[in-house]
Design a protein that fits this description.
The complex is a heterodimer of chains A (162) and B (448).
Chain A: H1 2-17, H2 20-36, H3 48-67, H4 89-94, H5 97-106, H6 109-120, H7 125-132, H8 136-161
Helix pairs in contact in A: 1-2, 1-3, 2-3, 6-8, 7-8
Chain B: H1 7-17, H2 27-36, H3 53-74, E1 121-122, E2 125-126, E3 134-135, H4 141-153, H5 155-167, E4 176-177, E5 211-216, E6 220-227, H6 241-246, E7 277-281, E8 284-288, E9 294-299, E10 303-314, E11 317-334, E12 339-359, E13 363-381, E14 384-385, E15 391-404, E16 409-420, H7 430-433, E17 436-447
Parallel strand pairs in B: 5-17
Antiparallel strand pairs in B: 1-3, 2-4, 5-6, 6-10, 7-8, 9-11, 10-11, 11-12, 12-13, 13-14, 13-15, 15-16, 16-17
Classes of the chains: A mainly alpha (162), B alpha+beta (448).
């Protein structure tokens, strides 16, 4: 089970914490927790195990983030983002996954967390606000900035690699 | 938010969904180490024996206390008045010490102990009465004879009666006398309706007290039990031949039978049948035999101690086996008032299947069925070793209710029935007397 899922779960951790060492530690802690509560898991179909493990791991990660008060270290909110062109789907598809991962990890922590929760976990701003202990408007504006940054990076890459 | 521009974000998501980051070297080994030697509180730890020592101490204290109480309560033997031989007079002499005149109807040979099954009524008459009246159910010619003889006996009867009562059982409070005629001398019955010596032993049906400490788990479980099985012995009507023959003969036994003083040759010598000695008591000659009659048997409550193991099978089923030791004790009183103790020690293996058909948070109900096979490993009657070779088989069926006081400890109550098969041996025990018993067990059960 470890072999099968650890890679993806490590990717998850990296998306959130960016620092490799911390991500590996969180992966380790996450698996201990998973094995500890495995008896409570009831199999409900294809992919339900991984979805469950993802939830467990996400909670571990968020717990770490909360504890370390990373949300306090956010970018300045008074800056309005520059106008930017958002890339289209086809363009994004050309970007390799490792590169996308890198871009996300390069985001400032606050933006990154909100981006992950909104885009990948598909949470609403309200939910994000509850999870992170912030204002949902703050969540929304952080997402805007995250998008802008990402869009710029993707565009730059595309420009260099076409 | 510009929804139409979110497509690229969704694309990022799908692309990264199955993305797998290469794992660090030694990651699994590190994880394995942490899992086997958990340090973090998130991993549940199993407390070992030592850290649970106070639990075990409490359990042991409960165990010992209940065992002692049970033992103390049950030391009182259950009385089973089991009539066997009444002291027999060979002859009612007219006058002592002269041998009676044959004409008076005492010529009939005095049989030695006749071991037959009869029930007879004897009306007890006080010693002072000179005319004994004995009624036999059997309408034999002997009756008439006896009747005839009786009338002629007179004073000597009281003598004999006095002797008899002296030999009788303890409960001669009103000093009744057994008046027995020669023919009836060998009566070996426990007469029903015999008053006032008759003492119904009352089916005590004392509840079983098995203090059972069983660990019941999903896997293997260990238990400890103390208790007794069986009920009080019941009234015995009639006599078993077998019982008489059962008990090992007492070497120094006396009793049963008086020499037929009428059976003399002309030279006045009374012939003593072979194997018998004559002894005198109060001037009345009695036979002394090699074997004494068993008069009363008092069985005490059996006491059992055991260990049990329970293995869960899933769906509320489990099987249970173990090892148990049972102690059966009886007191035998012989017709010559001598007593001996009979003690039997059994080792047995029980086997049960349980089904928890109701299982709630705090309580549950279950059914159990099973049996046990036991073997006597040591036995003693009086001074002699008893070697009971056959195995003792028994069946058991109970319904049980258990209430969990804490997560670990529960109390239970198990009424049921048990049946002990006749082991085919000659030894008389409470199990032979009452093969089918109502049982009631109560105890504590530990769960891990």
């Amino acid at each position: 089970m470890y072999e099968q899922y650890a890679g993806r779960l490590l990717a998850l951790c990296l998306r959130y914490v960016s620092d490799r060492e911390t991500a590996e530690d969180l992966l380790h802690d996450g698996f201990i927790k998973i094995f500890g509560v495995l008896d409570k898991f009831t199999w409900q179909g294809e992919g339900s195990l991984f979805a469950w493990m993802t939830r467990v791991m996400t909670n571990i990660v968020l717990g770490y983030l909360r504890k370390n008060a990373v949300m306090n270290r956010m970018g300045r909110l008074d800056d309005e983002p520059d106008a930017y062109d958002e890339p289209d789907e086809a363009a994004v598809e050309r970007v390799p996954e490792e590169v996308l991962m890198r871009f996300i990890r390069e985001l400032p922590t606050g933006y990154r967390t909100v981006f992950n929760l909104y885009v990948i976990e598909e949470k609403t701003h309200k939910e994000i606000a509850l999870l992170l202990g912030i204002n949902d408007k703050s969540s929304a504006s952080q997402l805007v900035r995250a998008r802008a940054l990402l869009a710029k990076k993707v565009q730059q890459w595309l420009d260099c690699n076409t | 938010m510009k929804q139409e521009n979110d497509l690229w974000l969704k694309k990022i998501k799908t692309q990264l969904r199955d993305y797998s980051e290469p794992l660090p070297a030694g990651g699994w080994e590190r994880l394995e180490q942490s899992l086997s030697a958990p340090k973090t509180p998130s991993v549940p730890t199993r407390k070992g024996w030592w850290s649970r020592r106070w639990e075990w101490a409490a359990v042991a204290a409960i165990f010992i206390t209940t065992f002692l109480i049970t033992w103390w309560v049950l030391r009182t033997p259950v009385v089973d008045v089991h009539r066997s031989a009444e002291p027999a007079l060979a002859v009612m002499p007219d006058a002592l010490p002269q041998p009676p005149v044959p004409d008076e109807g005492l010529a009939s040979p005095i049989p030695v102990v006749k071991q037959q099954q009869r029930t007879a009524h004897i009306s007890r008459t006080p010693i002072s009465e000179e005319k004994p009246s004995i009624i036999y159910k059997e309408g034999s010619a002997a009756n008439n004879e006896v009747g005839a003889t009786n009338s002629g006996v007179g004073a000597t009867n009281s003598d004999a009666s006095a002797t008899n009562s002296g030999v009788g059982t303890k409960e001669a409070a009103t000093a009744p006398s057994t008046q027995q005629q020669p023919d009836a001398a060998q009566k070996s019955t426990a007469p029903t309706g015999q008053q006032p010596k008759y003492r119904p032993s009352g089916t005590l049906n004392l509840p079983d007290r098995k203090k059972n400490l069983t660990a019941q788990a999903a896997k293997w479980a260990v238990g400890l039990s103390v208790g007794n099985t069986g009920t009080g012995s019941s009234v015995n009507n009639g006599m078993d031949n077998a019982i008489l023959a059962l008990h090992p003969p007492m070497m120094s036994a006396k009793q049963s039978g008086k020499p037929d003083l009428a059976d003399t040759k002309d030279d006045g010598i009374v012939e003593i049948p072979e194997g018998q000695d004559v002894y005198f008591e109060n001037g009345v000659p009695f036979y002394s035999k090699e074997t004494a009659q068993v008069k009363d048997i008092r069985h005490s409550m059996p006491i059992s101690v055991g260990v049990s193991f329970r293995r869960g099978l899933g769906s509320g089923f489990s099987v249970e086996t173990g090892l148990m030791y049972t102690y059966l004790s009886s007191e035998i009183e012989y017709s010559n008032a001598e007593k001996s103790n009979q003690n039997l020690h059994y080792i047995g293996i029980p086997l049960r299947a349980n089904w928890n058909f109701v299982s709630r948070n705090r309580w549950g109900l279950y059914l159990s069925a099973g049996g046990a096979v036991e073997k006597s490993v040591y036995g003693k009657s009086g001074d002699q070793r008893l070697n009971v070779k056959p195995l003792q088989f028994s069946l058991l069926g109970v319904i049980g209710a258990q209430y969990n006081l804490t997560k670990r400890i529960g109390i239970y109550l198990e009424p049921g029935v048990s049946y002990y098969f006749d082991d085919g041996s000659d030894v008389e025990t409470i199990r032979k007397k009452n093969p089918l018993n109502f049982t009631l067990q109560a105890g504590f059960r530990l769960t891990y």
